[in-house]
Amino acid sequence: MTPTSLTPHQLAEIGALLAEPARAAMLLVLVDGTARPAGELAQAAGVGAPTASAHLKRLLDGGLLTVHVQGRHRYYRLAGDEVADWLEALALPRRPAALPLPTGDLALRRARTCYRHLAGQLGVALCAGLLERGHLTTASDGLALNRAGAEALVHAGLDADAAARLPSLRGRSCLDWTERRLHVGGPLGVALTGAMLDAGWLRPAARGRALLPSAEGLRRLAALGVRLPDPAG
């Protein structure tokens, strides 16, 4: 189900699901791509177990969550990266990119995960750099990394086997909620971010969704035409 395929009734249903603070809190906890048990989601939402169970059923019925059953345990996660994109655009606090963000949000704006793909200033810069060099191309079914782009990533230091898989994956253009520009989502974005994490170009922050680029990672990304704006700017 894509935004353009939604009927007015379906759109109203999704709006109703997001309008409840407890359900919104559960969804936002899962934006990092993790799967969590009902108890953790109840705690994040500040509700009891019976109330959490009712909310989770509504989110499952509404197609925003999926559940993985492992033995006697049930783990909930977002139904896909498309849902995470909607949450980034609709449910997270909106701030014009030109305005300064509170200190605690600067790392989140600089680089973060959005359902396992790279977002924020670095995600936007990566998308722009690959497009400008012709490594990333637009197609009818989304974004595609060509063979020259995969070779450039290997030359920059990514694992050759991981990079070789990237041209077979499709990406989506996601509008970044802080930068109001595009970053790469979908399977291509997830795999590309995973390869950069494995290479040590990025590492997760101790808490939250922020990703911290290493000095070596920034140097190698710069070789691909990817540059972060000056933090002081």
From TrEMBL:
Write down the SUPFAM superfamilies for this protein, in alphabetical order: Winged helix' DNA-binding domain (SSF46785)
Q: Which residues form the signal peptide?
A: none
- Chain ranges of the HTH arsR-type domain: 3-98
Where on the tree of life does the source sit, at the highest rank? Bacteria
Q: What is this protein called?
A: Helix-turn-helix transcriptional regulator
The UniProt entry, under CDD domains, shows: HTH_ARSR
Known PANTHER family for this protein? Answer: TRANSCRIPTIONAL REGULATOR-RELATED, TRANSCRIPTIONAL REGULATORY PROTEIN
Q: Name one Pfam family in it.
A: HTH_20
